[in-house]
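Hey,

Quick one before I head out. I ran the complex with guanosine-5'-monophosphate overnight. Inputs first:
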Amino acid sequence: MDTVFDQIIQGKLPAEKVYEDKNVIAIKDIAPKAPVHILIIPKKPIKDLQSITKEDLPIIEEVILVAQKLARDFNIEEGYRFLTNNGISAGQSVFHLHFHLIGGRKMGILG
Ligand code: 5GP
């Protein structure tokens, strides 16, 4: 079954898009944990970080460049988190690879 992110990518579900190109989409998180909380999502349906193969790496490079651009655009360049949760025990809830770009507030080691 398609995840919510597949449905957003396909335009079947609405989302606040902040970036899109052929391979990558970025949307505002529906339940932000900080003033800036963006999800950067490769359009290819990769389940999680652990499922990335060597042939996917060019897409991951793109994701990193998009993260840098959005950090500049949203004025959080001086400090932000860029992370992915891999697996249920790490807190992953949507099983389509995505990276959280989080910033705009002071953060501690885990929170
Ligand atoms: P995970 O828990 O898998 O690392 O991250 C999933 C993230 O997706 C969560 O932060 C959650 O708030 C966000 N999310 C879940 N459903 C939707 C949705 O329909 N739209 C948007 N924009 N974000 C969503």
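The chain is about 20% helix and 25% strand.

Talk tomorrow,
K.
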